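Appendix B: complex inputs.
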Amino acid sequence: MKTTLSVIAGLLATSAMAQENVLTVYTYDSFVTEWGPGPAVEAAFEETCGCDLQFEGAGDGAALLSRLQLEGPRTDADIVLGLDTNLTAAARETGLFAEHGLSPDLDLPVEWTDSHFLPFDWGYFAFVGNAGAEAPTSLRDLADSDIQIVIQDPRSSTPGLGLLMWVKTAYGDEASALWEDLADNIVTVTPGWSEAYGLFLEGEADAVLSYTTSPAYHLIAEEDDSKVAWAFEEGHYMQVEVAGKVASTDVPDLADQFLAFMLTDAFQSAIPTTNWMYPAVVPEDGLPDGFETLIQPETALLLSPEEASATRDAALEEWRAALAR
Amino acid sequence: MARGAGTIAALLVLSLIAVPIGAVIWTAGGIAGLSAADWAAFRFTIWQALVSAGLSVLLAIPVARALARRRFRGRAALITLLGAPFVLPVIVAVMGLVSIFGRSGLVNTVLAGIGLPPVTIYGPQGVILAHVFFNLPLAVRMLVHGWLSIPAERFRVAAQLGQPVGRLLEWPMLRRTVPGVFVVIFLVCTTSFAVALILGGGPRATTLELAIYQAVRFEFDLGGAATLALIQLGVCVLAMAALIVVEAPDALGAGLDRTVERWDGSPRLDGLVMALAALFLILPLAAIILSGLPGLQQVPVSVYAAAGRSVIVALASMTLCILLAITIVTHGQNWPRVVATLPLSVTALVLGTGLFIVVFPFLRPSSVALPVTALMNALFALPFAVRILSTARDDAEAQFGRLADGLALSGWARMRVLILPRIRRPLGFAAGLAAALSMGDLGVITLFASGGQETLPLAMFRLMAAYQMEAAAGAAVLLVALSLGVFWLFDRGGRVGAGA
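Resulting structure:
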């Protein structure tokens, strides 16, 4: 009897120890697929941490936050990776995140002061079209042209929301008028990025809302230089993707270790050719060949999380009213 | 089968809907009011669903009649193929439609070739076109069953007496069948989301389902989502109540189950009608397959594993769905059937969120992803199965019930001797539909699955999100093949030796 008990106690102890060494990271789906950064990141971190890193994919960035809110403080998540600055104000308000306590040197076109969330990559939104075709030079130019585009719905997609913020930041009170002029350029509005990009590749539109880095995918992975991003005079709105430590984590030290690891070369060098975004810290070897061909916007536009959250509802209503006409 | 079992099955279905929605409301701390935008979404939703259902049924009548009264080689294959659009995942079907009707699609290429202006699929017309594409096959199949239920003896009598078949036989059958078909399709169209959004051309085409998606995903406004979900359920209950009032009883009586030989109507016109319907339904499907074949070799091994999981989930879901459906239709009263229709109007997102809330305190949601998906898919296929089986079961009871009573057949014996043989054809169709709908589902699984539990549609969607459009197109071909495969298998099983 005594032996049985001690065996059980021993088993419990090992399982508790195993539990202590598991770092659970909630992230968006495409991060964990075999084409995403997940596999490389997992292998590199497990080499040094003496732990088991487990990614759990949960839809897209917005789904990630609502998943965490559903689970509350009882969540298994130790780290949430993949929110963007449109979501961080709401994320901070939930009180579910802890401060990261780091002040790293970042290669971002904007200053970074967020106490709860650390960026792991970033990109500029841009319209991606075919090389050699007519390319507008500004949002206004696009709105005045006959060019046909596909965009994503700001109510269900992060790039869609990015465009909403782009127009609002660049045009302020004139945003509504710009949307009205854009209305006849918009072939359709899709629920997510994949559908829009698919329609563009099928030839349904001259351009699609995506990122300045999208042509790099076609160039590097498919050796196809026929896709280009349009540089716009107003500047380009940014998407900064961040990670944060969950306050209720049972492995706070491991979580801190992961956040620090996130900004090292082992993590960052995986980003450009798996997530097709710019790394938050450029690795020592620089960016992969092909990235030098991408357009470099002169002005980076980005609202602070608080401004973004305060602007969103009114901007959404403007968008809806202008396009519903 | 005892009435008690039917009651239990119906209560089970009701609790599978009420508990999750209740959990969402409880978490939200109550329901929320509606905004002006929500009301606009409500109006658009109802309007497009009415038009879509009306058109689907109107177009289905001549097609179903042609299929029911003509015999030709390949007819069985045509009937199976015609069922395909309904079981396709939305995004796959939309891409197929776009390659035919889109800006650079086949139709516009032809129009441009003969100097005509292009047509656009984007706008309310596109939403309706897509809904007709999805639902015309369902309407045709349900109506063909109606035609086949008219006893061949009646046609003989009509032929001998030189009486019009249309007014005496077909009209009463349609009068009995059409309202149910219309309501089912109307309800399917009220929960449309991706179709309306991709083809609707913008916020004018906002449906209730999108408003729910926005509330759950972007605003974490669970109260708002619950309100919208309750409105959808309300629409469903009202539509079902109206149906019970409108539906007429069967007046044609029983026959000896002979296959009817028809003499009326123009074979040429019927041929044209069938050819047009086949072109409309099969061209987009062919486009999906043609564009996907080159990508088939790029489909990674993990997708085949996902396909295996999907098949298992589909079989489990089909079994569960058919057991529930048979139990419910043999209850004999209306209320369990109304309850069984409710899943048509519940969104997977709200139901999935509610289940997540219920499950989370006890289990890791990802550890039950596949069983929950099978259960939910069974629930979502139940309305179709019940609708398809109830007419057949009622006919069997009306025609042979008294005989069975006289022979003191009850319980399992009555089921085996009377009901099952007489509902075999619709049973095969319902089983095929349930399995195929589950194959193509991309609802609850997205909320529960993590790493190793992807189903095929989810794997395909994740390929798209990783720029792997060609591999995704290849996965779509696999999905179409498997969906059609399971559908054909069961549907065919139900029709062996039935001559129809």
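Chain A touches chain B through 56 residues (CB under 8 Å).
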